[in-house]
Each structure stands twice: as structure tokens, then as C-alpha cells.
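Entry 0007
Protein: MITD1 protein
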Amino acid sequence: AGAETVKRAVQLDVASWFQESLVCYQEGIDLLLQVVKATTDEAKKQRYRQKISEFTFLSDGKYHKQIRIEENATGFGYEKLFHEYLTEIVSEVWVEDPYIRQIHQASRYLLYNFLRFCEMLVKGPCKVKRIHLLTSYDQGSGRSQQMAALEEIKQSLSNYGVTLSIDFSSSIHDREIRFNNGWMIKIGRGLDYFKKPQGHFSIGYCDFDLRPCHETTVDIFHTKHTKKM
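Output (C-alpha cells):
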């Protein structure tokens, strides 16, 4: 299966379908790594390692895609933005965003956005087992509300077999999301690129694809994902 997946990756690469080829390369490499772990024959192990090295060289992270979201644009819900990169082998996700908090009532949607992102991960097709969140503490009395909300999200995720680890940094500024299949997404506004809905019963309140967006830029990279053989 790993060899067939890599063969498909080469075909896509030749056809200049670079994004799709990188996904296939990574999935093929992951399958071959499983074979290496299960094989006791040292000669076979060495041959597989050589092949993995060759395929890793071919898929070495040179891919970069940029998406420009215009002011008031719609159709950029989390599923639409991330689904190409959340392949079945994704089991771990890192979110770095300093503003997963609520400084005042008007910005309470920041925490809801993170919850909506977690819901997307739970629905699949990926099999996420662990989410790492790095953010900053809210200010003043908002800190207790922030902690209570994050703890509730953590407990709810555990019902779906997902562990949420939460760390805080006072110096974090960058916003990025990483998946353990090698994809990294940087959004200028982080997860908070949606405009506040006009009301609780307005179109777009529940469906983020219908929610107008703030202008922002999304940069998508693929970095070499190294595993020990």
C-alpha cells in the first residue's frame, strides 16, 4: 500500500499537482515506516530505509500556497480551509494563538472559534488524539472565565478520546496551526478571521461558511516531517 501511494505521488508530481503529491508522499512514507517497525529482516529494513530516504528527498518541504481572504468574503469556514490537509494520518495538532481568550464581552467569540475548530477535528476524517494549545492569559477578571471555558472544552474533548493540553505564554505573538503530517498553516488573524454576527438568529451565526470575514492572508507550508526509523 505504501509503494502504491508513493507511485501515485510521483505521477501527481510529474503532472504538477504538487499539493496532492505531497500529501501522497507523506502518507506513503508513513505506511513504509510502519512496515520498517514490523520487519525483523535487517536487509529488508535497510532497503525500506533507503526508499524512505529517497521519497523524503522528493517530498522535502518546498511547497507554499497563499490564500487571500477579502473583506466581507464568505465561504471560508474551517472545514473548507483545512480539509485538504487533514488526512487520515493526522493524529496530533498544535495551535499557537495569543488570543484564545475573552478580554471583554464583545470578543467572547474567540473562544467559540477555538471550540468550532476542535469540533471540526473531532468530525474527521482525521483521527486526532491530541491537541496542543499555546495561548496567553486573559487580563483581570477575564482570566477565570477563560480558564473555565478552556477546561470545559478540555473535558468535552476527552469524551471523544481527544486530549487537550493547554500552555500559556506572555510573549507569544505568532499565530500558526501545525498537523503531524507536515502541514503548517499561518493565518494573519489566527482563528479569529470571522466578523461578529449581526445577531444570534442571523444567517452565518451557526454556519461559518456563510459568515463574512475580515481581510486576511493564509499561508500554507509543508515542512519535512522526520520520524525515527
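Curator remark: The chain has a mean pLDDT of 83. Helices lie at 2-14, 18-38, 42-58, 78-82, 109-123, 142-158.
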